């Protein structure tokens, strides 16, 4: 226990962290941090950038070219930029809210402050389910990669199980500080892979799913003409590509200096949006309606194997991180306020491995039951991504500023917050409808994937 005369504020007294004369840190979330337990405050601002990039650039970017095929090139880019602006603001609010409320670790804590016990349960469960569904999408993407590399050398259901076991093992690493090196490797992996894909589709004769006879000419569209369900599902896929925002709470909570978060956010969102636009435009321009989902399958047979081989590490790391995020929510919820949270006790390890194992098992079931990559991505983005990326952040600003002076700027921000909340609700309802319709259509179509299928899922388009 730290006495008042032994405490010095580690950051000027604003973050709620204290360090005693022996170097023991008292954290508002994790309690007393010592050398006897894991260091939950070891992430620097550069590490935060790459962790945020890896939560975002991965599965989402692989669906962007298909989104452009549905919406058309120009509306697709406009919608992507609009959602980028909204989610960047949401990310900024995450950082500010953490600084203002050091005891907040995740979205469940935000819900408790804003809406009491109901908000605590709803926001916490929504975040955990979102991460689990993203992990399921990642497991499905890894299975697709293994199918491509092995030329469907085994039943897809086996590849899904292997992916789940690998990601459970890595996701059980205790702290984000120790995972950051994986994030560096995974980010480089996925960026190199999509760069190779982009170059390949530009120099190859035709996409892998295009007719092999006759001259090929891309049928890309500047403006699409989708039905309502298709358009809403496409927007949901863009939301999914930016839906790592709530996981920023986990990252800023494990930063050495949370006030550096905004700097990390600017780098992350700028790099990510540039990559999304560049990759999406170039791949769709050259592939047109023959773009595959995931997009790595758009290259020719050889380059598809190369792209998937290089991207495999990135897909594994993305899945690992989302298993870690959801498991950390369950872990902190079960042990918060006890000495076991930051100590390597038997209870600590049973709770932690139980959390990561339960999350990985659930993600495996989801990946096996809904083996339609594009449909699963849009469903997750619509049903859960909007719910945790839009509405809570509008509520967070209102919570911190509602009693401030009623200036013109305050009025504009209140209007903006209500716009964020209303637009997020609309996207959630409409996008879920569109995504469900798309999944049903895929099941009904000839060759549609079935649950726990052995069929090769690396040739979808």
TrEMBL record:
InterPro entries: AA_transpt_TM. GO terms for molecular function: L-amino acid transmembrane transporter activity. GO terms for cellular component: membrane. It comes from the Eukaryota. It is a multi-pass membrane protein. Keywords: Membrane, Transmembrane, Transmembrane helix. Pfam families: Aa_trans. The chain crosses the membrane at residues 70-94, 122-143, 149-170, 182-203, 231-252, 264-286, 306-327, 348-370, 376-398, 410-429. It is found in: Membrane. Residues 44-436 form the Amino acid transporter transmembrane domain. PANTHER family: AMINO ACID TRANSPORTER, AMINO ACID TRANSPORTER (EUROFUNG). Belongs to the amino acid/polyamine transporter 2 family. This is Neutral amino acid transporter.
């Amino acid at each position: 226990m730290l006495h008042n005369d032994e405490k010095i504020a580690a950051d000027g007294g604003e973050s709620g962290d204290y360090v005693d004369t022996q170097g023991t840190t008292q954290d508002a979330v994790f309690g007393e941090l010592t050398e006897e337990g894991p260091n939950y405050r070891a992430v620097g601002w550069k590490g935060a950038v790459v962790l945020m990039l890896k939560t975002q650039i991965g599965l989402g970017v692989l669906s962007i070219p298909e989104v452009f095929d549905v919406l058309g090139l120009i509306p697709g880019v406009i919608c992507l930029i609009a959602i980028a602006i909204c989610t960047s603001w949401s990310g900024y609010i995450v950082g500010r809210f953490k600084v203002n409320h050091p005891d907040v670790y995740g979205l469940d804590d935000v819900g408790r402050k804003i809406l009491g016990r109901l908000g605590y349960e709803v926001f916490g469960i929504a975040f955990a389910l979102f991460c689990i569904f993203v992990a399921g999408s990642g497991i499905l993407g890894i299975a697709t990669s293994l199918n491509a590399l092995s030329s469907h050398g085994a039943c897809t259901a086996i590849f899904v199980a292997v992916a789940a076991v690998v990601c459970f093992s890595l996701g059980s690493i205790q702290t984000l500080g120790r995972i950051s090196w994986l994030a560096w490797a995974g980010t480089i992996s996925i960026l190199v892979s999509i760069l190779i894909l982009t170059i390949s589709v530009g120099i190859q004769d035709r996409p892998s799913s295009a007719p092999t006879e006759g001259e090929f000419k891309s049928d890309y569209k500047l403006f699409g003409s989708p039905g309502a369900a298709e358009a809403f599902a496409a927007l949901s896929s863009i939301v999914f590509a930016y839906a790592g925002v709530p996981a920023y709470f986990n990252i800023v909570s494990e930063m050495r200096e949370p006030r550096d978060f905004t700097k990390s956010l600017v780098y992350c969102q700028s790099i990510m949006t540039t990559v999304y636009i560049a990759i999406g435009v170039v791949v769709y321009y050259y592939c047109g309606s023959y773009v595959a989902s995931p997009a790595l399958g758009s290259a020719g047979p050889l380059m598809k194997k190369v792209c998937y081989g290089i991207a495999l590490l990135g897909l594994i790391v993305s899945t690992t991180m989302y298993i870690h995020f959801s498991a950390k929510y369950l872990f902190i919820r079960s042990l918060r306020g006890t000495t076991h949270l930051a100590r390597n006790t038997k209870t600590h390890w049973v709770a932690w491995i139980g959390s990561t194992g339960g999350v990985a098992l659930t993600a495996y079931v989801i990946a096996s039951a809904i083996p339609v990559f594009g449909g699963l991505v849009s469903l997750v983005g619509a049903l859960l991504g909007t719910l945790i990326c839009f509405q809570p952040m509008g509520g967070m600003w209102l919570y911190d500023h509602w009693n401030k002076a009623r200036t013109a700027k305050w009025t504009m921000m209140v209007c903006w917050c209500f716009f964020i909340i209303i637009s997020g609700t609309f996207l959630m309802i409409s996008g879920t409808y569109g995504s469900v319709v798309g999944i049903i259509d895929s099941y009904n179509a000839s060759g549609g994937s079935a649950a726990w299928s052995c069929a090769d899922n690396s040739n979808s388009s």
